[in-house]
Amino acid sequence: MSRTIEYGNLMHRAMRGLIQEVLEDVAEHGLPGAHHFFITFDTNHPDAALADWLKQRYPSEMTVVMQHWYDNLEVTDEGFGITLNFGDAPESLYVPYDAIQTFVDPSVEFGLRFETQPKDDEDEDTDDEDDDENASTGGGDIVSLDSFRKN
Fold first, then answer.
1. DSSP of 8-42, one letter per residue?
2. I need a surface site. Which of 22, 45, 91, 108 has the fewest CB within 10 A?
3. How far apart are CA 120 and CA 45, in angstroms?
4. Is 43 exposed, middle or buried (0-12, 13-18, 19+ CB in 10 A)?
5. Quick check: helix, strand or coil at residue 43?
6. Is 129 exposed, middle or buried (0-12, 13-18, 19+ CB in 10 A)?
7. In sequence order, what are the residues at sequence separation of 6 or more whose Cβ sits closer than 8 angstroms to the Cβ of residue 82?
8. Is 83 exposed, middle or buried, given 0-12, 13-18 or 19+ CB atoms closer than 10 A?
9. 35 closest CA partner among 9, 60, 68
């Protein structure tokens, strides 16, 4: 088997490191100015932790907003824990970086999207156009902010 550089994995690791660094700064200094985050994550990730009623309401993915009120932001090398307000009910969440699907800061039109590529061990040597394109871009794209804009 020939050795290859896995640009997609390297890019995902770098993007998750960027999110960690941003959250560490926010944990230490708070959100600056108008910055705020929309974070979509896979609620089925084995290390994601959320209240049962949230898991039932969001069985596959959930988008949380980190803006005016949040508490207990704890950032680790694997993910972050935070308490957010859901209809006047504070709930604690734990989100592993590997569970994050999108990270958007609409105040500065910045966004990341993580795309997972299904792995098929039997077809490791098979290439198609989509795989080649995702490998060259690292699978990370800028998220369209149109859905987050206020009309």
1. HHHHHHHHHHHHHHHHHHHHHH---TT--EEEEEE
2. 108
3. 20
4. buried
5. coil
6. exposed
7. 64, 66, 70, 71, 72, 73, 74, 92, 93, 95
8. middle
9. 68
Q: Of 79, 27, 87, nearest to 57 (Cα)?
A: 87
pLDDT digit string (tens) for 51-89? 999 999 999 999 999 998 899 999 999 999 999 998 888
The 10s digit of each residue's pLDDT in 85-127 is: 988 889 999 999 999 999 999 999 999 998 765 444 444 443 4
Question: What pLDDT digit, counting tens, does each position of 11-51 carry?
Answer: 989 999 999 999 999 999 999 999 999 999 999 999 999 99
Answer for the pair 100, 39: CB distance below 8 angstroms, yes or no.
yes
Residue 47, helix vs strand vs coil: coil
Strands 100-105 and 140-141 come out as unpaired
- DSSP H or E segment with residue 133: helix 129-137
- Tell me how far CA of residue 76 lies from CA of 96, 130, 136, in angstroms: 9, 33, 29
